[in-house]
Specification:
Elements lengths: L1 H54 L14 H10 L12 H13 L4
Helix pairs in contact: 1-3
């Protein structure tokens, strides 16, 4: 009887581990995507929002609206190279962060 108990216990442990690993594999892409978006939002907040608060109050970048504005951001920053304006420049790392986020949502 004891033997069956340990076999069942071992089976439950293995099933629990397998389920935990499956859940982890579902979570990791979300965390990675969220991290990419978070880095891009930091760039938008630090390099863009200050000027937008003064001149373009209707376009302040937030986590909620940044995906909707992504195509426009791509065009203004990488295609037309109009943004950011003035003395504000993006570092290579900041540009990479924006590109990684844009790529993650299917904009290139």
């Amino acid at each position: 009887m004891r033997k069956y108990f340990f076999i069942l216990l071992f089976a439950f442990i293995l099933l629990g581990f397998k389920n935990a690993m499956a859940k982890q594999s579902e979570i990791i892409p979300y965390i990675a995507e969220n991290s990419v978006k978070s880095k891009a939002l930091t760039v938008l907040e630090q390099k863009c929002n200050d000027c937008h608060l003064k001149k373009y109050k209707s376009i302040i970048f937030t986590e909620k609206n940044m995906d909707v504005l992504a195509k426009s951001i791509h065009i203004q920053v990488f295609v037309k190279k109009k943004m950011p304006k003035g003395k504000v420049k993006l570092t290579d790392l900041e540009s990479e962060s924006l590109r990684a986020w844009l790529t993650s949502i299917g904009i290139q």
